[in-house]
Description:
heterodimer, A: 6-stranded mixed β-sheet, about 0% helix, B: 4-stranded antiparallel β-sheet
Amino acid sequence: AQTVTQSQPEMSVQEAETVTLSCTYDTSENNYYLFWYKQPPSRQMILVIRQEAYKQQNATENRFSVNFQKAAKSFSLKISDSQLGDTAMYFCAFSLATGNQFYFGTGTSLTVIP
Amino acid sequence: GAGVSQSPSNKVTEKGKDVELRCDPISGHTALYWYRQSLGQGLEFLIYFQGNSAPDKSGLPSDRFSAERTGGSVSTLTIQRTQQEDSAVYLCASSFNRGANEQYFGPGTRLTVT
């Protein structure tokens, strides 16, 4: 079975600072994908970043980057130069390349403080 | 282009009534997912449709829950004899194919059972 764990229910960061959100997962499979989704108060889930497990290079998208440690089954999200609009719930998710389901963590509520 | 749409955005119903929630996926997306998000929780997988294949219903919590996808496009999630524990946000997502691909989420339907 696949599981995703986010151990930080709530976090806060000062505007313009850097914050890292943690995610660990468990799987016996080798070919999978990892995602970070953002859910602002509007409820609209938006993809932040995606990582293929077969790629060693960490994915980056502007101010967002990941630290993917396959052996440790860790997939953390780093947000640089935090902005007020980054305030949201952040969900880590996992899917098998050949599977149907996405597995989501319980989320981290991030507040950016002006 | 148009994103995933869901209707209604909010639904209040009395315990014991049936409700239907609708999802319009992105045109051309063959995969469609339903999730339930209870307050302060992550996303709970309910059901998955892929093209004309039999749906993966493994996440449906009880036989009061059912879903259809007509013509490979619009989907309806039906909850019969609603209970107070059914109160949650119901999210629909679609993707091109499955697994590896990003899911695009709708804004969700907030269901309140009184």
